[in-house]
Amino acid sequence: MAAGFPQYPRWLSEWMASQEIVLWGVADLADFETPADGAGLRFPRAISWAVPMSPEIMGAIGNGPTPAYAAEYVRVNRWINELGAALVAEIQGQGNRAQALAASERSDPVAIRGDFPHKTAATRAGLGWIGRHCQLITRAFGSWVRLGTVFTDLEIPCGKPMVRSHCGRCTRCVEVCPAGALTGTAWIPGIPREKILDVLACDAWKKAHFYHHEKGHVCGICSAVCPYGLKQLTRSAIPPGGKLTANS
Question: Is the entire prediction scored with pTM above 0.85?
Answer without folding.
Answer: yes
